[in-house]
Amino acid sequence: IGRNIVHLIDRPDEPYCFRLQKDRVYYVSESIMRKTTAIGRQNLISLGVCFGKFTKTGKFRMHITALPSLAQYAKYKVWVKPNGEMPFLYGNHVVKAHIGRVTEDMPEHQGVVIFNMADVPLGFGVSARSTVDMRKVDPTGIAVFHQSDNGEYLREEDALF
Description:
By secondary structure, the chain is an alpha+beta fold. Helices cover 24% and strands 32% of the residues.
């Protein structure tokens, strides 16, 4: 989301912040965060919306629970046609034949949010090619690498929280 991260923290209704609890990063309002100080850290299971977690190697892995916040302020977006929704929701990459629209000037290897044609966010991934290069690729070429989708709520429900 780039510089739009400021909009996540400085919201007009009330300020929000990011908190690290064990190996997970949570997005929570400051009023709720203050109320949880009465609970011991070892007894606190969850706090706000889980944005992702740090792996054992120290890399950050974004969770699908962050999608509503990411979709709202995403710089780069890809819209898939109806025939491309189900393959993406089953965990496959987005091929060029399934793309309906793309944000202009999208660079290669940037984070993108994938929407259906009705502007409902389906998931997120990484662009395999820039907008200019995407026009030259054959229809079966990969346009967006899959990272996470709404189908994960069913496939990995025990590991999300």
